[in-house]
Model the fold of this input.
Amino acid sequence: MNLVLSELSVSFGSRRVVAIDSLVLGHGEILGLAGESGSGKSMTTLAVLGLAATVGATVGGSIKLDGQELTTLSAPELRAIRGRRIAAIFQSPATAFSPVYKVGTVFTRALRLHGADKPEASDLAASAMRQVLLPPDLLRRYPSQLSGGQLQRVAIALALALRAEILLADEPTSALDVTVQAEVLDLLRSLRESTGLSILFISHDLAVIAELCDRVAVMRNGLIVEQGPAGQVLSAPSDPYTIELLESVPKIGSSS
Amino acid sequence: MNAPLLRVTDLKVRFGPVLAVNGVSLDVPAGPFGLGLVGESGSGKSTIGRAILRLVPSSGGSIVFGGASVGSLRGAALKAYRRDAQIVFQDPDNTLDPRMRIGATLSEALRTHGVVPHRDLQARAGELLAEAGLDPAFAERYPHQLSGGQRQRVAIARALSVQPRLLVLDEPTSALDVRTQAHILKLISRLRDERKLAYLLITHNFGVVSELCEQTAVLYLGKIAELGPTDVLLRAPAHPYTVALRSAVPEVDAAGRRSRIVLAGDPPQAASPPPGCVFHPRCPLAIDRCRAEVPALREVAPGHHAACHRAEEVLAGTALAPRSEPGPASP
Done:
């Protein structure tokens, strides 16, 4: 599996908000996309999911999944890929679950949409829950009865149950407590090891990216200003913007 | 030593069956001074800040500000306290009325407390904006015409407009981008020296307290787990919870060679706290004594307090060997 973005542009009318020359996510790789609000990182996610049009944006250039062009697919063709081969989790897991349905209902409905029959769906759901270290009986609860960290893990479990090859994770830990964030990062790391999942990890927090990612691309105003191995970019940044971002991270033990 | 500006003794705040704050004692000396309150969601850190400002009623204990008991303030004395103690929230939209221009928001506070004569209101509002690093012309704008960082600067300017002696900063930068956060932290640091501010800084970010607070209290389930000088607490923590919390913080420099203490399970419910030490169900060091006997907050080194039966072992570094990552501990 690989995902290749080339000459990708996302525009609102004449205003271009993303212009990426080249970005490649390899098999089993965790790629960090770093940037602030308005840098275009979330619009990039929407473009990959084929959802940019829903917010009124137009996409140009190419997005290829294993050589297959995604930008020209029809809506039904895209639906077979989105949520199946490419799954996404967002900052607020609550947005992924309707508050009026038990999480298990949402879970099995998604699985059945992608072709599982009923008993198969509940088996898959239960084993995916165990993979993210949650008891399967949480599926019988409503979203409001789960903590933010639990709900985010359920969202990840759903991606696993669908055997997603790529997980787009848009600020998935920004709303979580640091201890819970550490657990979710551990989970993503171990899932990559055990399933070969590729992860595009979007965050404004360079410390989190340093912990988790193999490579990092730094975005500003829709452009990638710097990309490379995470250790190299974060220890010896070459772009002034990357340097400024790094200096902005509050450091423990910096005061005297 | 002189009496502190703020003395909180055995504070309790109850919401129905939940004891959100369970016997917290804190001192804040006159400024410039920063006290950090650090903890996870549900630790009671925000509730303490709100109880001090009398935004929520306390159910027990005392809060003494400048020699007077806050709980018994009435009338003019209460109004004076409302001026002396100010708060900045995580979300500046809690402070700014979307239908009021920035200038009107600032002069309302000035007028209410009669800080400056009526004819000077506009000029003073402009000065406050400039002090917070904003163009005085922003007085004519509405909140939605400003960015989140600019709105937070206005919220800080508004809090400082009435010349408070105590400021509660409740996660003032958690909703901001990292560069904006750095600018706001710099602003707080500059104002604290210029204005001789004393503040309580509520945050979950150890990096933020490390930059801005002389002292830090780590809270767990409505109680202080550990209290001491920030640098000591971060360098040599005496409570296993502080060690675990500290080890969960991602750091750019430490990536790849970090070891982390994994806490078992989720935080317990404040409605049904466990017996003994409230941390024992998740504590890697829990012994029988921890399950039965509530540890008192005691001085384990000069100025350094911890509520743990085994604090000495934690301090000596003999009790906790962080689990190395990846993989389990070696046998």
Notes: Residues 12 and 22 of chain B are 5 Å apart (CA to CA). The mean pLDDT of chain B is 90.
